[in-house]
C-alpha cells in the first residue's frame, strides 16, 4: 500500500483564499481590516524565517501587519510595556509573541499579559482553560491545523483511537483537547512513556509532535493509520519530520509530508484566528469553517 499524501500546502492555500475573501468583504462593508502584530525578540534565524512567512501571509490576505523587533537584551518590563500598548491598540486584533524568548524573559508572564481576545496563538492560560472546558476559545494554530486536516481525511473522529506524541502546551496538550472534543479516544505519550512502538501500533491516528528526526518508524504503525507529522527538524539532509516518511508511507493510509504538511496550516490558522478575533471584537458574525 502507498499512503495518500495529505497536501497541507494546498489546503492552507484554500483556507487563505477564503480568509482573503472575508477580509475583502470586511473592508468594503465596514471600512477596516483585521490587524496582526508579531513581536520578535532577538534574531534567531528560524524565528526570522517564520516571522517573515507570517508577514507575507498577512499582507496577501489583505490584513494589516505590524512587526515589532526588540533586541535579545530587552527587559521583561519593556516587552510587557509593548504588549500593553498592543492590547490597547484598536487596529490590532491579534498579537503573537514569537517563541522561544531569551532566558531573562518569563515566557508565561509575557503570554499571560496578552489580552485574551487578542491571543491568536491560544497560549494564554485562560484560552487553554476555555478549550479544556468546552468554552469558546482561541485555539492554538498548529493543533487547529492538524484537526482540520484530520477531519478532511476522516470525516468524523468519533471513537477513533488517537495517539498524540508530545505533551507541550503549544502542540501536544491542545491537540489532545481537540481530539477529546471530537470524541476520539486519546492517548498522550511523552519522553517517559513506556513502549512507544506498542502505543503507536494500536492507533488509527498518530500525531507526532516531538522534535526528534524520524523517531516514528514505519513498523510502529498500524496498517491504514492516518499520520500527522508536526515535527520540523533541521538536519544536514534538510528539513525532516518526526516520522520516517518513506517507511511510514508504505504502511499508513494517509500522511502529511514535511515540509508541505502541518507547517503551512499553522500559518493559515494564524490568519483564521486573527479574522475570528477581529469579528468577535466588532460584534460581527464569525465566518464559518475557520474555528474548531
Ligand atoms: N509545523 C508547525 O507548525 C510546528 C512545528 N513544531 C515542531 O513540533 C515539534 C514539537 O514541538 P513542541 O511541542 O514545541 O516541542 P517541545 O520540545 O516543547 O515538546 C516535545 C515533546 O516531545 C516529548 N518527547 C521528547 N522526546 C521524546 C521521545 N523520545 N519519545 C516520546 N516523546 C518524546 C517531550 O516529552 P517530555 O514532556 O517528557 O519532555 C515533550 O512532551 C518540534 O519539532 C517543533 O519544531 C512546533 C510548533 C509548530
Ligand atoms: N508564538 C509562536 N507561535 C507559533 O506558532 C510558533 C512559535 N511561536 N515559535 C516557533 C513555532 C514553529 N512554527 C512553525 C510555523 C510554520 C512552519 C512552516 O510553515 N513550515 C514549513 C517549512 C518552512 C521552512 O522551510 O522552515 C513547512 O513545514 O512546510 C513551521 C513551524 C510556529 N511556531
From TrEMBL:
Family: Belongs to the tetrahydrofolate dehydrogenase/cyclohydrolase family.
Enzyme Commission identifier(s): 1.5.1.5, 3.5.4.9
HAMAP family given in the database record: THF_DHG_CYH
Organism classification: Bacteria, Pseudomonadati, Pseudomonadota, Alphaproteobacteria, Rhodobacterales
Annotated organism of origin: Paracoccus suum
Residues noted as binding NADP(+) in the record, renumbered to the chain: 166-168, 232
Gene3D superfamilies the UniProt entry points to: Leucine Dehydrogenase, chain A, domain 1, NAD(P)-binding Rossmann-like Domain
InterPro entries: Aminoacid_DH-like_N_sf, NAD(P)-bd_dom_sf, THF_DH/CycHdrlase, THF_DH/CycHdrlase_cat_dom, THF_DH/CycHdrlase_CS, THF_DH/CycHdrlase_NAD-bd_dom
Descriptive protein name: Bifunctional protein FolD
Domain Tetrahydrofolate dehydrogenase/cyclohydrolase catalytic: 6-121
Amino acid at each position: 500500500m502507498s499512503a495518500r499524501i495529505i497536501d497541507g500546502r494546498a489546503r492552507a492555500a484554500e483556507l487563505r483564499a477564503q480568509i482573503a475573501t472575508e477580509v475583502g468583504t470586511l473592508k468594503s462593508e465596514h471600512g477596516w481590516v483585521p490587524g496582526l502584530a508579531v513581536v520578535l525578540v532577538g534574531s534567531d534565524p528560524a524565528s526570522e524565517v517564520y516571522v517573515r512567512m507570517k508577514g507575507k501571509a498577512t499582507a496577501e490576505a489583505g490584513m494589516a501587519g505590524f512587526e515589532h523587533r526588540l533586541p535579545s537584551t530587552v527587559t521583561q518590563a519593556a516587552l510587557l510595556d509593548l504588549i500593553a500598548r498592543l492590547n490597547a491598540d484598536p487596529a490590532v486584533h491579534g498579537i503573537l509573541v514569537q517563541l522561544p524568548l531569551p532566558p531573562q524573559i518569563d515566557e508565561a508572564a509575557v503570554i499571560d499579559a496578552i489580552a485574551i481576545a487578542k491571543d491568536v496563538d491560544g497560549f494564554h492560560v485562560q484560552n487553554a482553560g476555555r478549550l479544556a472546558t468546552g468554552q469558546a476559545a482561541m485555539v492554538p494554530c498548529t493543533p487547529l491545523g492538524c484537526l482540520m486536516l484530520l477531519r478532511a481525511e476522516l470525516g468524523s473522529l468519533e471513537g477513533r483511537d488517537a495517539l498524540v506524541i508530545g505533551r507541550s502546551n503549544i502542540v501536544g496538550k491542545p491537540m489532545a483537547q481537540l481530539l477529546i472534543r471530537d470524541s476520539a479516544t486519546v492517548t498522550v505519550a511523552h519522553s517517559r512513556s513506556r513502549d512507544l512502538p506498542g502505543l503507536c501500533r494500536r492507533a488509527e491516528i498518530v500525531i507526532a509532535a516531538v522534535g526528534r528526526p524520524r523517531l516514528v518508524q514505519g513498523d510502529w504503525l498500524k496498517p491504514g493509520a492516518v499520520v500527522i507529522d508536526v515535527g520540523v527538524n533541521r538536519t544536514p539532509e534538510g528539513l525532516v519530520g518526526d516520522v520516517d516518511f518513506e517507511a511510514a508511507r508504505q504502511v499508513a493510509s494517509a500522511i502529511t509530508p514535511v515540509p508541505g504538511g502541518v507547517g503551512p496550516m499553522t500559518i493559515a490558522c494564524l490568519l483564521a484566528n486573527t479574522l475570528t478575533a477581529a469579528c468577535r471584537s466588532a460584534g460581527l458574525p464569525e465566518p464559518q469553517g475557520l474555528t474548531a
